[in-house]
Amino acid sequence: MTSASEKICRILSCLSDRRICKLTDIARFTGLDLSSVLRILKDLEKLDFVEREPQTKEYTLGREIYAMHHAMVARQDIRALARPALVRMARKYGDSLILSIPSNWESVCVDTCLGDYPIRANYLEIGSRRPLGVGAGSLVLLAALSDAQQQMYLPCIHEQIDKRYPMFNQSMLKTHIALCRQQQYAVLCDVVVNQMGGIGVAIRAPDGTPIAALSLASLSERILSRQDSIAADLIQEARLIEKTHFPAR
Length: 249
Known about the structure:
The protein is α+β, with helices and mostly antiparallel strands. It is built from 10 helices and 8 strands. The strands form 2 sheets. It has a 6-stranded antiparallel sheet with strand order 5-4-3-8-7-6, sandwiched between helices. The protein has a two-stranded antiparallel sheet with strand order 1-2.
């Protein structure tokens, strides 16, 4: 049975993706019934954790969430440290750069920087969520976890892959995790969007825990033709962020 607090957390997590804002969408993505979602949203709205637009009837995160966010950012903001790397890589390669962070069995896009190449990977925006393993950034985050942590998250991940990603499967995920651990970066093409792919590198805490991922997304042919160069530059940028974020490392 799902506890009341877990239901609230599911709804708030869901609302971090701006594309999920209708009552029916929130219910579908959280796996909760409409009446429960509506009741919780009304309570959250009273306390300013959620806002509802009267005309469109769309829900968004409220002022209290932003207050909590600013308190967290004041203490530690990986985005500010990673932003120069995103800009440098976007200028050098002309493609889309993405910064993602882990959130339980999902990855969340927290920043992007678009290059000048006309065909862009614009299917991820800030707040977008994916299961760990689906996409280069989320794959490298999953591969960097311990075996025990992976086993804890894999049932949820497998369920989402089977349900939402017809070009991917559990066997492919297992193979890519092993390869990612071997080469210290992830390459994933034609999984989420046909003919599109990415390369991702983990940003780690001193104990090896992945705290974020840098990834470059583009046409699959542009990824594969420059794989070694892109991977080397992403690794260099990730190590620089780690040294800045953890100066005693």
